[in-house]
Amino acid sequence: MASFLDNCDFNATSTGTGDFVVASAITGHQTPASAGAVNAAVYRYFARSADLSQWEVGYDAYTSASVTLGRTNVLFNSAGTGTGSGQTGAGSKVNFSTVPKVAIVPLAEDMIFPPASTTDNAALRADGTGGRTYQNSALIIADTTAALSRSGGGGVPVEGTNTNDDAASGYVGEYIVATLGYASRVTLTNTTGVSLTSISLGTGDWEASGTGYTEVTGSPANNNYNIVSLSTTNNTLDTTEGLYIYMAPMTISATVANGVGPARKSLSGTTTLYLVSQSAFTAGTFKAWGQVRARRPR
User: What superkingdom does the record give (predicted)?
Assistant: First the structure.
């Protein structure tokens, strides 16, 4: 893709088939340098004689050190020998008999051609691989909210990942998990909450869940409850409905497992979410372990 310059039109220094060396700006216009030309950038040009009997359209790189615009690629010219449509294809340069004037111009090759849309707010998509033609897509983008919908209805399908990777932090589908394994299980104290593990959740909307395991050995007595909770306070149960699970009391040595959630956590800032276990008992040994996890759904 070529670059553009505003109001750039200059006199070359010489006739012939050589590159265009800048002599001066045409009155009311700018030289490439004053228009901000970048060294080695490619520009489209229209060169013509004063009487317009000779002309050439092409593109090449600009060299700032020698203030020169090349003529390597000739698309069209008055001799019909350019490489563009309707020309002979030779790409030969015009042999200017008088010093030409050279303008930096946009050409059709640089233009994007969108269709005359009949669907308000329709997003454009490329039509083919040429890079210049576009057409309406079925995707509709709302003016104010940028909400997406589909022309004709039916919703907008969103393709999920097709490999075993993870969504990046802050993106829909982000998944965070932490596990305290059996080998690292903690010993519980009567009616005292213990945080088994925790995860840090960023600002936003989350669906959180946890699985807690309680192992009882010895001869349990007065085991009134075993609770697992999702809590934002360390070592403290959250007994909000949906954020805890009550496990049946045990009278023999055994292991029980229960899941809590999924539960919504809508967060205004980074928050630590704990998986808390608590049991009430007067005899026996109670140990706990588990996993807490969360996924960002939107």
Answer: Bacteria
